[in-house]
Specification:
The chain is mostly helical. The protein is 61% helix and 0% strand.
């Protein structure tokens, strides 16, 4: 069975959180709105809907996530958004009163700015991209970072973190299997036997690998 998790519970919980010490540069880059943005934002009649619409635009630009994925919003971001909208707002104003409104806003933003939902096609493309990258560097945290950057650059809304973990583990498994099979094809039988002995001496290090051997020898893969 392919391992499908590698993050700790705390890492998983905090991965898409905005740090409290987010820099002014990042706030300005992702949460500053142009006149064209403000035109769409100000179409919302209620104050809280304008604030939430603006926040959702910033979140997609910054982290590639939707409003409901967020656990904590630093006050520095709330203040920056409020000032641009000329609204004296508190954190409780950055919440939807109706779930349907949140979905409507997300669909509007996707249509206006070209964001796309993560679907089966996106899954397959990301898997292929990560497989090629894993042949060069199979570090799971490296793959997670480039996966997020690839999705953000493609304007694809990020799936859940556990889904990303699963895709990364599958890509690593396929990459390692390809490498082992290639090694197997070029080594002679005596070389395979010698390498098996060396790997057995390594012990726990090899047993903890994410590809379980199908027999006592890795060359029977």
């Amino acid at each position: 069975m392919i391992k499908s998790r590698f993050l700790t519970k705390d890492q998983r919980k905090s991965f898409f959180n905005i740090p409290e010490d987010i820099s002014d540069t990042e706030i300005f880059k992702y949460y500053t709105f142009f006149d064209s943005d403000l035109m769409h934002i100000n179409k919302c009649r209620k104050i809280n809907n304008r604030l939430c619409f603006a926040l959702q635009i910033g979140l997609l630009r910054h982290l590639g996530i939707t409003y409901n994925n967020l656990i904590n919003i630093p006050d520095s971001i709330l203040i920056h958004i409020s000032k641009q909208l000329n609204i004296l707002a508190t954190s409780d104003k950055f919440s939807y009163q109706r779930e349907n409104t949140r979905h409507e806003h997300l669909n509007q933003i996707k249509k206006i700015y070209g964001f796309k939902q993560f679907d089966s096609e996106s899954n397959e493309q990301l898997n292929q991209y990560l497989y090629k990258q894993a042949l060069i560097n199979s570090n799971q945290y490296f793959l997670l970072n480039i996966a997020i950057n690839e999705l953000k650059n493609s304007k694809i809304i990020l799936p859940g973190i556990t889904n990303l973990e699963k895709i990364i583990c599958e890509a690593r498994y396929k990459a390692d299997e390809y490498i082992f099979n290639n090694i197997n094809s070029i080594l002679k039988e005596n070389q395979k036997t010698l390498l098996d002995i060396i790997l057995m001496d390594i012990g726990d290090s090899f047993n903890n690998a994410h590809i379980p051997p199908k027999s006592s020898s890795i060359f029977d893969l």
